[in-house]
Design a protein that fits this description.
Elements (H helix, E strand, L loop, with lengths): L10 E4 L2 E4 L10 H5 L2 E9 L2 E2 L2 H14 L8 H15 L4 E9 L14 E8 L8 H4 L1 E10 L16 H12 L4 E6 L4 E4 L3 E6 L2 E5 L8 H12 L4 E4 L11 E6 L3 E8 L2 E2 L4 H14 L2
Parallel strand pairs: 7-8, 7-14, 11-12
Antiparallel strand pairs: 1-2, 1-6, 3-4, 3-5, 5-6, 8-9, 10-11, 10-13, 13-14, 14-15
Helix pairs in contact: 2-3
């Protein structure tokens, strides 16, 4: 599949039916465009099966609830929509994007309870999110923005509005020749990258931030369980920025990122070591099993 994302051949599932890709449009006064009333999921299909698909569908519904935006589909209906979209486009290995949003309707102020909640599923072939960094280790900038307090925004939701600072931070990182940026949170603790959770290795043990102000990623949870099954100690804790100097290895996890080694964050460097490689290989085997 080639071309810009609004000009491609294929089908998109939209509000209960498959439509031509170029015709999957919304009105300019769609509430989500103006007020970020939108939640989404990013998923990957491997060999025709969407990895952790049900968990993603369940989280989508939860995100909608957190934004006071009840999504009018069940988990089973969302699952069918995803697989219908894959089949309509002839994909077995693909990225799957499910998005739900407040559409255009009777409300056009901040409140939008009179407007319908709509949903779409698009899928496309997508390789490594960080390109060749997946093999040699990504280089990360340190973002100037902070992950906000859960008292200010529903950080447990995978909501479009939470990604505004991610876009700005990734633009700034790419301008410096980096692949991504690492956030600290509102307290100054290490948080996550713009679209991925972060893990560190020291003395054979793994350390990762507590998800109390960041999204508890499904890939993150999968990798933590994988490490525990391997007998590797995992510390979920608050990590201070000055600790970065003492970590030996680092990697990112996410549906798009999969398992991506990190070679550098700011002035701190890391090796792509045995634990990182083993986790990446084990995850690849798991998703294709």
């Amino acid at each position: 599949m080639a071309g810009t994302y609004d000009d491609r051949d294929g089908k998109i599932w939209l509000d209960g039916k498959l439509v031509e890709w170029r015709e999957a449009n919304v009105h300019i006064l769609t509430h989500a465009l103006h007020y970020a009333s939108s939640v989404f999921e990013g998923e990957r299909a491997y060999n025709g099966k969407i990895f952790k698909s049900v968990e993603h569908s369940e989280r989508l519904l939860k995100s909608g609830e957190l934004l006071d935006m009840p999504i009018p589909y069940t988990v089973e209906e969302i699952e069918k929509a995803k697989y219908d979209a894959l089949a309509a486009n002839g994909f077995t290995d693909a990225y799957v994007r499910v998005v739900a949003w407040r559409g255009a309707g009777a409300d056009m102020g901040v409140a939008s309870s009179k407007n319908p909640v709509r949903m779409a599923v698009a899928c496309w072939e997508w390789g490594a999110y960080y390109g060749d960094a997946k093999m040699k280790g990504a280089k990360l900038d340190i973002a100037k923005w902070k992950r906000p307090s859960p008292e200010t925004i529903p950080t447990a939701a995978k909501a479009a509005g939470l990604y505004m600072i991610c876009t700005m931070s990734k633009h700034a990182a790419e301008a410096k020749g980096c692949s991504d940026a690492l956030f600290f949170d509102y307290r100054g603790y290490v948080a996550e990258a713009t679209g991925a959770n972060v893990f560190f290795v020291k003395d054979g043990e793994v350390h990762t931030p507590i998800p109390d102000a960041i999204l508890n990623g499904i890939t993150r949870q999968t990798v933590i369980q994988m490490l525990k099954d391997k007998g590797i100690t995992v510390h979920e804790r608050h990590i201070m920025p000055e600790e970065l100097a003492g970590f030996e290895q680092c990697w990112l996890t996410g549906t798009a990122a999969e398992i991506t080694p990190v070679g550098q964050i700011g002035d701190y460097t890391f090796e792509v070591g045995d634990i990182t490689r083993d986790v990446a290989e084990s995850y690849e085997a798991m998703v294709r099993a």
